[in-house]
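Trying the structure run again after the queue cleared.
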Amino acid sequence: MRAHEAGWAHAEGPRGPSWLRVPGDVNDLVPLLWSSTARKTPHGSLEVGGVDLLDLVAEHGSPAYVLDEADFRARARAFREAFDGYDVYYAGKAFLCTTVARWAAEEGLSLDVCSAGELAVALRAGFDPARIGYHGNNKTVAELRRALEAGIGRVVVDSFWEIERLAVLAAETGRTARVMVRVTAGVEAHTHEYIATAHEDQKFGFSITSGDALDAVRRVHGAPGLELLGLHSHIGSQIFDTSGFEVAARRVLALHAVACEELGVRLPELDLGGGFGIAYTTQDDPADPARLAAEMTGIVERECRALAVPMPRVSIEPGRAVVGPAMCTVYEVGTVKVVELDAGATRTYVSVDGGMSDNIRTALYDADYSCTLASRRSDAAPVLARVVGKHCEAGDIVVKDEFVPGDVAPGDLLAVPGTGAYCRSMASNYNHALRPPVVGVRDGIATVLVRRETEEDLLRTDVGA
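Done. Tokens:
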């Protein structure tokens, strides 16, 4: 995995990755990486949703997550329209708050949650429970009971224990649980090991190869109070083509056909999950929803014809692809340090007022990000820099390698695009840092959606004298 005990941060050379090119103008934005309303003003500051980030930081401080409402809605709508006839579930684990849940509902999306907390947010937002799916590999009895009592539209079961728990709860509550069976298709998605979720050696789902998946289908079908809807598969995250979906669909639909024949029923639904990738840097080339829809529909239609089974109603679960590009994070530069390396080479370290507490993905997944100077225009030549956080970790990296103006200095603002997915969701209080706010922007108005944590918040759970 990593040759150096301090991580990849100490392993790469000073010139950065081969795909990173020196920009013609270091002030320019790469549109693919940013939300649709992002632009540079005449004096060089970054504007998103008609709000200048200089003004946003002056009012709300930094670091701050900036969520472009128009962009989020447009991406949600693009998936709903491209996948017409599908059920499109927004994967709330990417980022969820009550306002975002309402936006998703208003744009015609259903919602996928995977914890009691996410369900609580969805219900507080007034999301129709019948349009909510509940995931998770270790749902407690209390969580399942709450889901049933709330009238959740479907529960994605992940173990034999859960099937038993759900059957008991259905009897106790007098409610019918509508169930999808999560299966592992044995597909190695072309992504990071920790976010590839359909190969055999991992915690999710029932194995098709071992026969557990068919056994699970039988048990759900035979359990009073459980309604078997169909099969669910998810092959991973940050995936750029549909080849993995094709293999998964072939294997899952083969099981679907066997189950229908053996049980003498028609399974009405099939969920192929999400995991659609976005562009974090110029090396990424994601497919748009229309192309994904055409290719995935063709895959399912071909396999259903080959197996002589009726087309089920298909659902997908985009999360990152909806919210990821819609958000950026703005930081203030605190220090700039040039470090001498071997053979006369140097590396410029730009330290900002956030870090791995607001974006753990670089350290956790070796993820790549970009950034831009967000407070002014610069005429200085670009220099290759590493943007780092303020935490007591050598691996506290925000952006591994990016060209920034050579005159970047304390007090400047830097903005990092593509931080909508998993950054706020996975944020922590490491070093007792306070988690940043999420500020929604649209038509020149900035609105706090999730407020900044305070020291009072931090100390409230500390009950020591």
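The longest strand covers residues 327-340. Worth checking whether this holds up in the mutant runs.
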